[in-house]
């Protein structure tokens, strides 16, 4: 009963928020007064009120928005608990040029998502973002009024009083990867339903798919590509990526209703893996500028596919803003290191792909909240 006054306060505030967000269950999907229109597809000629992807990182002592003791964080991203000695990387917020990015408001987010499902679909970096979103939200929900359920590699956080679920669905390639003859792994570039069946009936779908398509032969997850009845041993990775994304785009166009479902595609999360993964080790501040700004091929391919769609898909472009943040990766602190091990960090592998939490994905989720 110790949580009862807290629960009553949350409930009253939620009713207030929901009242002012409109009574219609679909009106929120059409509400474009949130200060951002980032629509791809055939609406690209419409004006952009605020391009969140262009701006600068600003140090803000009031961050982070939650602590590293959040119970939903996986060990690989809890850099503080794993012994990382500095914490400044947690205190940077993103300031877009010409507008402001609202600070994440858990109650406002839950109010918008009341009786709705949001599902993040993709790879381990999308799970990184899912853990961030759950930690941003869970602090305002009393113990006993929240739970997490697991189904294989997929999982869902349930805010019970809001009848809201924040879900993660594992599908790093979006299209289907199956075992073929002689136990060979076959990537079917034109099949998707096995994964897509989980996406039906979801109110907000957030996708990413990029890193797995460019894994080297040593780390590749498949032995063959297949399209129709044709089998290929090799294919240009970006051609394969374009084919896979086109299969996804066709499924969205044919199966989803934009009046009921909002679809967002997050761009590729940059890696800082040069110098054998040591480019992010011992980095403490964001980069200030790029001498040679580079747009990854995956982003070019993704934008091309989105422009050909009839369904309005929102591009959540985090690539350039995150490229400044080579200080935000776990590096050697992807595992708990004792005092003696910290004296010899180069004996351990360095992760410059995923992100420490609290950290950069929290800002992605501030953008995501503004978009919905």
Automatic annotation (TrEMBL):
The keyword Chaperone does not apply. It is found in: Membrane. It is a single-pass membrane protein. Belongs to the PC-esterase family. TBL subfamily. Its main location: membrane. GO terms for molecular function: O-acetyltransferase activity. It comes from Gossypium anomalum. Keywords: Membrane, Signal, Signal-anchor, Transmembrane, Transmembrane helix. Residues 101-371 form the Trichome birefringence-like C-terminal domain. GO terms for cellular component: Golgi apparatus; membrane. Residues 1-25 form the signal peptide. This is Trichome birefringence-like N-terminal domain-containing protein. Residues 49-100 form the Trichome birefringence-like N-terminal domain.
């Amino acid at each position: 009963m110790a949580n009862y006054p807290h629960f009553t306060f949350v409930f009253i505030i939620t009713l207030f928020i929901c009242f002012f967000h409109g009574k219609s269950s679909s009106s929120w999907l059409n509400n474009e007064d949130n200060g951002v229109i980032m629509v791809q597809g055939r609406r690209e000629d419409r004006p952009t009120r605020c391009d969140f992807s262009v701006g600068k990182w600003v140090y803000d002592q009031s961050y982070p928005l939650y602590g590293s003791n959040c119970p939903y964080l996986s060990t690989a991203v809890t850099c503080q608990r794993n012994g990382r000695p500095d914490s400044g990387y947690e205190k940077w917020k993103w300031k877009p040029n010409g507008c402001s990015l609202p600070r994440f408001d858990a109650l406002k987010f839950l109010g918008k998502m009341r009786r709705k499902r949001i599902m993040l679909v993709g790879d381990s970096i999308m799970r990184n973002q899912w853990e961030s979103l759950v930690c941003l939200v869970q602090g305002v929900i009393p113990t006993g009024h929240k739970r997490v359920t697991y189904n294989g590699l997929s999982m869902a956080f349930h805010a019970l009083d809001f009848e809201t679920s924040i879900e993660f669905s594992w599908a790093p390639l979006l299209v289907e990867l199956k075992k073929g003859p002689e136990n060979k792994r076959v990537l079917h570039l034109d099949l998707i339903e096995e994964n897509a069946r989980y996406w039906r009936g979801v109110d907000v779908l957030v996708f990413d798919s990029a890193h797995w398509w460019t894994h080297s032969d040593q780390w590749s997850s498949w032995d063959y590509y297949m399209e129709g009845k044709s089998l290929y041993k090799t294919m240009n990775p970006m051609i394969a990526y374009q084919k896979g994304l086109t299969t996804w785009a066709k499924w969205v166009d044919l199966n989803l209703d934009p009046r009921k479902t909002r679809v967002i595609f997050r761009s590729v999360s940059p890696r800082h893996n040069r110098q054998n993964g040591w480019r992010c080790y011992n980095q403490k501040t964001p980069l200030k500028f790029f001498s040679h700004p580079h747009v990854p091929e995956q982003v070019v391919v993704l934008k091309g596919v989105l422009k050909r769609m009839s369904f309005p898909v929102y591009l959540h472009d985090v690539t350039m803003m995150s490229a400044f943040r080579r200080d935000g990766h776990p590096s050697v602190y992807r595992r708990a290191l004792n005092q003696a091990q910290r004296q010899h960090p180069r004996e351990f592998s360095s992760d410059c792909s995923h992100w420490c939490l609290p950290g950069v994905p929290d800002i992605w989720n501030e953008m995501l909240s503004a978009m919905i």
